Amino acid sequence: xxxxxxxxxxxxxxxxxxxxxxxxxxxxxxxxxxxxxxxxxxxxxxxxxxxxxxxxxxxxxxxxxxxxxxxxxxxxxxxxxxxxxxxxxxxxxxxxxxxxxxxxxxxxxxxxxxxxxxxxxxxxxxxxxxxxxxxxxxxxxxxxxxxxxxx
Length: 151
Prior knowledge:
Distance between the termini: 30 Å
Mean pLDDT: 78
Number of strands: 4
Low-confidence stretches: none
Structural class: alpha+beta
């Protein structure tokens, strides 16, 4: 669920919305299998896609018998996430979903993209905060807590 610019060939799984990315071993339907283990999900900024990804992460955690923790990176268009469709899911499942924190819009920045540096058009500035939401089952929460050295 990311751009092919973010592809890391050392990761065992990679999902993209673009069928052309099959050339770099991308899976094209991230919702075709359960999220398991520890994963990161930063879906494209399309309300329905973010809703479906959040719902899929919730069901994956709830139905999995193994440790499952999905860290969702979701934009907060209106600061408190009161009107976002995926926020309704977050609020409906507080035993599985936990807001870990937010990154303010002025702290969000793009990584350097080598081929973009000399372009006349700059990358746009973020105008929204980014929420980091953990969607996990008990085993997944315990696994992440055991790895947390700061308590």
